Amino acid sequence: MLHMTVFETVHCRKVPVMGKHSKKITCGAWNAQNLLALGSEDRSVSVSSADGDTVNVAQLRAEPGSMQFSEMKTDEKSPHEENTVSAIVGKKTMFLLNINDPENPIELAFQSRYGNIVSYQWYGDGLLLIGFSNGFFIVISTHVKEIGQEMFQARNHKDTLSSTAISLTLQKAATCGDNSVKIHDLSELKEMYAIITVEDAQGQLDRMEWTDDGQLLTVSTRTGCVHTYLTKLPILGDASGTRLAYLTSLLEMTVSNNVDQEPSFRVELKVEPTFVCVGLYHLAVGMNNRAWFYLLGERGAELQSDKEYLGTVNKMMLNGEYAAVLYDNKLQLHMIEADPDAGDDRESRMFPDKGRGLQITCAALTSDFLLFGTESGSLHYFYIEDWQYVNEFRHVVAIRGVYPDAAGTRVIIIDDKSDGLVYNPVNDATLEIPNFSPSTLGILWENYPNDRASI
């Protein structure tokens, strides 16, 4: 008998899993309910609890492999749980064991022309995508009334198929074989979404896996090479007036202004950014606590400076001269370009002032004003030209977002109750926005003067 030990990290204890198999354990899988399924050379599958107690044992006709847990659909309504152990048996059949019905395991055989089963993936409402060595892949349903029926079949590769992968985030399926990776949309498998040719594969593609977020697809070869492809680009961009800046590659931004009919240009970056901000004359990109500032010209951008902050940047805003950076419930206002004519006191300033004890939750920057809201419900206006506060408004609950118009003379406030109101700092008038959606993500103001509303 071969034994196994499970280390339980919560209580830092070892749990012996004993007497399950007489030969070497070759595959296994955990499910979300802490059940452990094991497959062995002794042609059996065992299911055990986290304490090592046997739940089920099933004998097979050949050695199992590629074990997984998922949910097989039945006619009866049941809570969502991973109730089915699946495995490839002897490279020819699929074995399905419903742990709630262990007396009726299912073994599915397929057409011999498909070849050996090399890989399979669960997805959707109890669907199985299965890849075969002769280049075929099929989709079957595991619902009781449809079990074994082929929902889809295609030959993706002429000579061989070596692996399959599914990204539930992207809703895409991929197969690799010969010298290519072929990608399908799960909602329309008949259509080929993309084909990636691996030039130096020499027919030796081996394994393939997607990252959880679907951003990267990695393919390995039997010759020891690893290829990683970008399959999803983070949505990252910003706008200032009619100018747009958006991520077009992991290390590239594109800046455009179609309204003014300026030619678009690309900006090569030093790092993969997590935030971006564009102003009248500058582009800022960065990650964590560091930002790089580029001076924008008519046909390109030039790296001007970089700056480190005392905390991870949550938000950055730019106007013609200044950058405002929100981090750790603090706000730093600083000049983008050093100005020898400006005094040291106007180079940079931290908010809130020492001793005020305010927790800044949001901020906005216009050409003339810096605005910020706080956890205590106060809204502060800082006039940059005079370098002093000019207005303060007290709200009844915490402020979560401030969205001023271009001049800063009107601002929409979103508070902790997800209510919205319009505030006029000139006369302290407020107007509650009726039927304001609690799922609002942002606010856009009309820029054409004649179309603006007034309060």
Topology of this structure?
Elements: E1 2-8, E2 13-21, E3 25-30, E4 36-40, E5 44-48, E6 54-59, E7 64-70, E8 84-89, E9 93-98, E10 106-109, E11 117-123, E12 127-132, E13 136-141, E14 150-155, E15 163-167, E16 172-177, E17 180-185, E18 188-197, E19 205-210, E20 216-221, E21 226-230, E22 237-240, E23 243-249, E24 252-257, E25 262-268, E26 275-278, E27 282-287, E28 290-296, E29 301-308, E30 315-318, E31 322-327, E32 330-335, E33 348-351, E34 360-365, E35 369-374, E36 378-383, E37 388-394, E38 399-404, E39 411-415, E40 420-424, E41 429-432
Antiparallel strand pairs: 1-2, 3-4, 4-5, 5-6, 7-8, 8-9, 9-10, 11-12, 12-13, 13-14, 15-16, 16-17, 17-18, 19-20, 20-21, 22-23, 23-24, 24-25, 26-27, 27-28, 28-29, 30-31, 31-32, 32-33, 34-35, 35-36, 36-37, 38-39, 39-40, 40-41
Q: Detail the poorly predicted runs.
A: none
Major sheet attributes: 4 strands, antiparallel
Gap between N and C termini, in Å? 82 Å
Query: What gross morphology would you assign?
Result: elongated
Q: Care to count the β-strands?
A: 41
Structural class: mainly beta
Provide a count of the helices. Answer: 0
If you compute it from the alpha carbons, what radius of gyration comes out, rounded to the nearest whole angstrom? 30 Å
pLDDT averaged residue by residue: 89
Strand order of the largest sheet: 3-4-5-6
Proportion of helical residues: under 10%
The proportion of residues in beta strands is over 45%
Tell me about this structure:
The chain has 455 residues and is an all-beta fold. The protein has no helices and 41 strands. A four-stranded antiparallel beta sheet has the order 3-4-5-6, with no helix packed on it. Strands 7-8-9-10 form a four-stranded antiparallel beta sheet, with no helix packed on it. Strands 11-12-13-14 form a four-stranded antiparallel beta sheet, with no helix packed on it. It is elongated, with a radius of gyration of 30 Å. The chain starts with a strand and ends in a 23-residue tail after the last strand. The model has no long low-confidence stretch (mean pLDDT 89).
